[in-house]
Each structure stands twice: as structure tokens, then as C-alpha cells.
TrEMBL record:
Modification sites for N6-(3,6-diaminohexanoyl)-5-hydroxylysine: K34
Post-translational modification: May be beta-lysylated on the epsilon-amino group of Lys-34 by the combined action of EpmA and EpmB, and then hydroxylated on the C5 position of the same residue by EpmC (if this protein is present). Lysylation is critical for the stimulatory effect of EF-P on peptide-bond formation. The lysylation moiety may extend toward the peptidyltransferase center and stabilize the terminal 3-CCA end of the tRNA. Hydroxylation of the C5 position on Lys-34 may allow additional potential stabilizing hydrogen-bond interactions with the P-tRNA.
UniProt-recorded Gene Ontology molecular function terms: translation elongation factor activity
HAMAP family reported for this sequence: EF_P
Source species of the chain: Candidatus Pantoea edessiphila
Coiled-coil stretches noted in the UniProt entry, renumbered to this chain: none
Gene giving rise to this polypeptide: efp
UniProt name for this protein: Elongation factor P
SUPFAM superfamilies per record: Nucleic acid-binding proteins, Translation proteins SH3-like domain
Single GO BP term: peptide biosynthetic process
Location(s), subcellular: Cytoplasm
SMART domains registered for this protein in UniProt: EFP, Elong-fact-P_C
Cellular component annotations (GO), alphabetically ordered: cytosol
Keywords: Cytoplasm, Elongation factor, Hydroxylation, Protein biosynthesis
Length: 188
């Protein structure tokens, strides 16, 4: 397996630290007036998402993490796992509920998600930034309610409940930001 010295650490590089894959966010080479040079690194653990800052000697070395990102198609889920398929070689992957996390409410059949694989196993699943969903339940907006820039609650086809503008009706398709869970626009 390929290894890097601490002087090679750059933003975006993925290494193994404490037996976990980590993504380097920033690194700074420091040569003090006295003593040995060192590298100050900010990195994020890919399994937990926690951010850590470490200082390494310039002679330290790290193994390269076998981390790749690929687009996979979401197929279905059962009580324990979510199932995805690679669109080119039709290889199937199963991902547990903990790995999916909050993204589970945006999963719908045939949705293309960006999946990070470590040694061939999914560790991060990200749905697209924007998805289109149908409003299946909402209250009618009253005529006088348009004075304030307020909103009403709507239930979407995937079961998610978000705030939408008063002019939207049942059956309309809207664009939703999956990162914030907010209404973006109406789809025509």
C-alpha cells in the first residue's frame, strides 16, 4: 500500500490515522528557528465525521486510505439495510441505517446518491443536493394569509414534513434542498 510522509499531506488527501480513514482539510508546514520542523494538520474522520487537529514531525509517514467516491442507485430498504446498485457493473451494496443517518428521509427508488467507499464498503451516503417531490397533504391557504411572508406545513410523497409557501396545493411537485430540508421552488 502506498504511504505519504507528513510533508506530502495536502487538502483533499485521504490517509489512515488511528486505523480509520481521514480526509485532510488543511496542512501547514512550520519550520521554527530552533528545533525540528513539523506539520500542523486539520482532518476529518470519515467514519464519524469528527474534526481533529494534530501536529506531526516531518519524518512521520501515513498509509494511503483506499477511499473512492462513486454514484450508486438507491433500490429499496428493509428493516435493517438500504440497498444500492452500481449503474455500470450492477454490483449491489447494502448500507446500514446508522450510515444513512438523516439522509434516509430523502431516499426514493432510483435516486442516484454519491457514496464513499472504504475498502469496498460504503461509509458515507449523500443524496443529491436537490430532489423533486410531490405534495400529498397540506392545508388550504386563506385569502388574507398572503400579507405576511409566512408559510404552511406540507407532507411530501416520501413522508417528510416541511414548510412551504401558501400558494402551493396538493398534487404539485416541488424542489427541496436535502441538506437543509427546505423548500426551494415549484417545478413546472
Amino acid at each position: 500500500m502506498f504511504s505519504y510522509s507528513s510533508n506530502d499531506l495536502r487538502s483533499g488527501l485521504k490517509i489512515i490515522f488511528d486505523n480509520e480513514p481521514c480526509a485532510i482539510e488543511s496542512s501547514e508546514f512550520i519550520k521554527p528557528g530552533k528545533g525540528q520542523s513539523f506539520v500542523r494538520v486539520k482532518m476529518r474522520r470519515l467514519l464519524t465525521g469528527t474534526r481533529i487537529e494534530k501536529t506531526f514531525k516531518s519524518t512521520d509517514s501515513f498509509k494511503c486510505a483506499d477511499v473512492t467516491e462513486t454514484d450508486l442507485i438507491y433500490l429499496y430498504h428493509d428493516h435493517y439495510f438500504y440497498y444500492f446498485m452500481h449503474p455500470e457493473n450492477f454490483e449491489h451494496f447494502q448500507v446500514n441505517q446508522k450510515t444513512i443517518g438523516e439522509s434516509s428521509k430523502w431516499m426514493q427508488t432510483n435516486l442516484i446518491c454519491n457514496v464513499t467507499l472504504w475498502n469496498g464498503l460504503p461509509i458515507i451516503v449523500q443524496p443529491p443536493k436537490f430532489i423533486e417531490l410531490k405534495i400529498i397533504k397540506t392545508d388550504l391557504g386563506l385569502k388574507g394569509d398572503t400579507v405576511n411572508n409566512s408559510s404552511k406545513v406540507a407532507t411530501l410523497s416520501n413522508g417528510a414534513v416541511i414548510k412551504v409557501p401558501f400558494f402551493l396545493k396538493i398534487g404539485e411537485i416541488i424542489k427541496v434542498d436535502t441538506r437543509s430540508g427546505e423548500y426551494v421552488s415549484r417545478v413546472k
